[in-house]
Specification:
about 0% strand, about 70% helix, elongated, Methane Monooxygenase Hydroxylase, Chain G, domain 1, mainly alpha, disordered N terminus
Amino acid sequence: MGKSNGSHTHAPAGKHKNTPLVINRLSRIEGHIRAIKGMLEDGKPCAEVLIQLAAVKSAVRKAAQAVLEDHIESCWGHAEANSQNDREWRSLKEALDQYFD
């Protein structure tokens, strides 16, 4: 991060627009994981634990999607704006939205 690969420079992660959202999500995920650990320690049914683990998995996927979007925007955002780039960006974003859904 923050290094140039010769064609463009990546913004440090803290400079991305989604960073506060990702940090907030990770904090919630951290709390959720502690709660799941407590469920296991308390002997809660496996089905309940699995449901909560699925929720955490989904939350991690959404956080990853936000980080990836920031990364792509930092790469493509510096490219010359034109209608072809706009179409390509929208197409890629739609594909990513479906992939992470």
